[in-house]
Amino acid sequence: MDVVSDVVNLIKPVKVLVPPLSDSKLGIDHQEEGEGLEATKDFKAAFRCFIYSATYGHPRGLASRNRLALCLSAEEVQQVGKELIEEVSDKARGGDPASLHVLGILFDKGWGVGQSFGRAFNCYLKAVEKGFLMSIYNVAVFLANGLSVDKDVDESMRLYNIAAEAGVASAMNNIGTYYVAGQGVPVDHQKANDWFFKAANNDDSVAQSNLGYRMFFGVGCKPDRDEGIRLLKKSVEAEYEDAYYKLALCYSDTRGAGPLFSPIEAAYYANYAMKFENVEKRALSLLQALRGQLPSGWEKAIQNRVAADARVKERRRQDRAVRKYIQDIALLF
After folding, report:
1. How far apart are CA 32 and CA 210, in angstroms?
2. Are 244 and 279 in contact (CB under 8 A)?
3. Residues 6+ apart with CB under 8 A from 102
4. What is the 3-state secondary structure (H, E, C) of the chain?
5. Is residue 137 part of a domain?
6. pLDDT-derived band of residue 326, with 50, 70 and 90 as boundaries?
7. InterPro entries, from UniProt (predicted)?
């Protein structure tokens, strides 16, 4: 189906026919399986599971999927994509909404197939007609950004609200960004924070980063630097790249001179943020500005801390694998 100019009219009557995905057993099962596979370093299989956990609305599924997509080689990502295309194509042709959504993701990202926003949008739209919740959210994203369809901020806001009411944390976060920017609504920082708070409480790492930074600097709320740092660190645990840079900014803020002003902490997070393309230049600029405030030997200290953090993460992965093994054994009795 070609993208049509009256697409808004096609999706006006949309209703959520699928139960709230935050309660979806499928989403939970796929996420737990993926975390177990990640713990055993079967990253390709884990990536595949995280694609499904995101499809079924697990709040950590999207972050896990995107994180592993960056960790795998391009060839590995393409291999998983091709396997999924073979797996879901027949079901998608039969109208299965989850399969349509997965196929949409593959076209959207160009995983295992040539990237095509138009074909992705068509897959999402067909799933929307069946009330599939995450496709409602993705159609809103396409309308918000004008991807293969005319940009329509008002309609994207309507669809985000439908998804948010059904429990999609990413939709809650995106509504918050509309109130920050005054996009389709008047600028309202308090309402923005309310939406970020809802999304953050549903484990959305982007919202945790947004709200944490705003709480640290008191944007739309009374400053709460400790809570701001706590939320940003939660976002970092999900390896959301912008949170590393924001933490570096918070620790380098001289207005917080005292326990929270720490050039070495700022340098640690800025150094980590440089791994991510979208914040690399800003992080490098901040790190250069900090150099005069850092003690001698700071680079070695940061390298040692990064190595220690890697060991902690590995132990956590192993612990998840053991818990999953115990759960699987328990099912046999």
Report:
1. 26
2. yes
3. 51, 52, 55, 84, 88, 92
4. CCCCCCHHHHHCCCCCCCCCHHHCHHHHHHHHHHHHHHHCCCHHHHHHHHHHHHHCCCCCHHHHHHHHHHHCCHHHHHHHHHHHHHHHHHHHHCCCHHHHHHHHHHHHHCCCCCCCHHHHHHHHHHHHCCCCHHHHHHHHHHHHHCCCCCCCHHHHHHHHHHHHHCCCHHHHHHHHHHHHHCCCCCCCHHHHHHHHHHHHHCCCHHHHHHHHHHHHHCCCCCCCHHHHHHHHHHHHHCCCHHHHHHHHHHHCCHHHCCCCCCHHHHHHHHHHHCCCCCCHHHHHHHHHHHHHHCCCCHHHHHHHHHHHHHHHHHHHHHHHHHHHHHHHHHCCC
5. yes
6. low
7. Mitotic_Regulator (IPR052945), Sel1-like (IPR006597), TPR-like_helical_dom_sf (IPR011990)
Query: Does the predicted model carry a pTM greater than 0.70?
Result: yes
Instruction: Classify residue 232: in a domain, yes or no.
Output: no
What is the percent of the chain with per-residue pLDDT over 90, rounded to a whole number?
A: 64
pLDDT in tens, 308-318: 887 777 776 66
Task: Give residue 279's identity as a one-letter amino acid code.
Answer: V
pLDDT at 17 over 80: no
- Is there a domain that residue 67 lies in? yes
**88 occurs within a structural domain:** yes
| pLDDT computed for residue 306 by the predictor | 81
Q: Determine how many CB atoms are found less than 10 A away from the CB of residue 182.
A: 11
pLDDT, average across residues 10-21: 56
Query: What residues make up the domain containing 116?
Result: 1-167
Structural domains in the chain (count): 1
Give the whole-angstrom CA distance, residue 300 versus residue 290.
Answer: 16
Nearest residue to 41 via CA among 327, 323, 236, 318: 318
148: CATH:
1.25.40
